[in-house]
Amino acid sequence: MSYETVKPHHRNPANPLPFDVPMLLIVASLLVIGLLMVYSSSWDASMIIDKPATYVFTRQVMWVALGIAVAFVLSLFDYHKYEKLLVWIMMGILALLMAVLVQSEVRFNSKRSLLNGSIQPAEFAKFAIVIYLAFWLNNHRDDLHELSNGLIPLAIIIGSVATLIILQPDISAAGTIMILGVLMFFLAGGSWKQLILIMFTFAIFAVIAFSISSTAQLRMQQYISGLQNPVEGSYHVRRTFEAIIKGGVFGVGLGKADTKFTGLPLPHTDSIFAVLTEETGLIGALVVIILYALLIWRGLTIAKKAPDRLGSLIAFGLTAWIVLEAFINISVIVGLFPFAGNALPFISAGGSSMVASMAAIGITMNVARQGVTHEAKERSQTSATVDLRGRDWRRGVPGANRFGDFTK
Fold this sequence. Notes:
Layout: E1 3-5, H1 21-41, H2 43-48, H3 55-75, H4 86-103, H5 121-139, H6 147-166, H7 171-187, H8 192-212, H9 214-228, H10 235-247, H11 272-305, H12 309-333, H13 351-382, E2 385-387
Antiparallel strand pairs: 1-2
């Protein structure tokens, strides 16, 4: 008599943990590198504000610890449940962005922070807009081709946040939000015609923002001058070039860079990649770039294995945001982009960037966790062994394809 028996599910020994181990190792590596570089580059900044030499480093350790705690908690929280909180989250972000403009706390010719520079709402706005867009695009996937229910509301959502950020002014942060909106719209199923229309609209918006921002105009002039002759570029970029040239291939050694003490602007925040390159050389810089490339690879892998379309959009959107921030920061340091105030995720000193980036990793880990659980359920439902009077050699029944796509 023939019979079927279903194998009990056993966790795959090749992946015994319910979260993405490569992602964890990549982020841990970036955090360690970041702490080393903040320790090396922040002595002068600490003493300028009449604090002990390790003051900035100690605060960074605190922010890293807080970020790890936030990431751990969010990795356990079902990402589907954010839908109930979306309106409150966005209202809070808009309130913080307006508070920045009302309070008018000017630092480095911009109004970007609250509480003496402790909070930068634009960093949390980038994080929140990715989550909001993921849910919105997932819920409106059947209306994306329509102007009234698709493109126009999407433009209003992105435009309202970007406008408040431009008024600070923070052109790079607003541009980051627009780029993320375009990427996520395309991955959600938008057509090429719609994508071109959105990009054209954002281009007009960018031109208007550029025309009313004297800061953006000055930076563009300096950028063009620097392209024509590096000696005539902005002081900031000239000093970063100096640091990179001094570093050479293998660097001058950890803690031995001198550009950070002789006028390199913001060596522990915006310019930390220049300090890293001076101390570890092109080899160290390449290692960091490879780590960010691996990060987006893991984000794409998690997105493809996500249990649903929403998880795919969230995982890709959050990792794309982090890597885009890194790409802009590094491009500015090597003179490929006009100067922007983007932090180098996980490496630059700063609480807002660290906590927001680690929160993004926590949510991405939850998507990975649910992807593993979903895959395990599929295997348990489809894997079976058949024994026909002992003559069937436990042939497995093939399961569903684990690699979905972003439009499922």
